[in-house]
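PROTEIN DESIGN WORKSHEET
SECTION A - STRUCTURE
LENGTH: 69
TOKENS:
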């Protein structure tokens, strides 16, 4: 039991953002499978956007700007 790891959801910023996005949508009439698809599409779109921002230097620029007084 000492090596058990507690896993929580969401465990990453991307999971949290995808969850919040789906949660803010009108889910009435949606099946669980449709909601799952909405979550997966949001997750991968956010992940792709994060990767593009990282590769372009956008994220590093924002981090540097945040350090400025």
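SECTION B - SEQUENCE
RESIDUE ASSIGNMENT:
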């Amino acid at each position: 039991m000492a090596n058990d790891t507690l896993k929580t959801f969401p465990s990453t910023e991307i999971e949290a953002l995808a969850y919040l996005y789906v949660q803010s949508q009108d889910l009435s009439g949606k099946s669980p499978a449709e909601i799952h698809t909405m979550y997966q599409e949001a997750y991968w779109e956010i992940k792709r956007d994060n990767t593009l921002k990282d590769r372009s230097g956008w994220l590093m620029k924002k981090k540097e700007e945040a350090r400025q007084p």
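SECTION C - NOTES
Helices lie at 13-23, 32-56, 58-67.
The first helix runs from residue 13 to 23.
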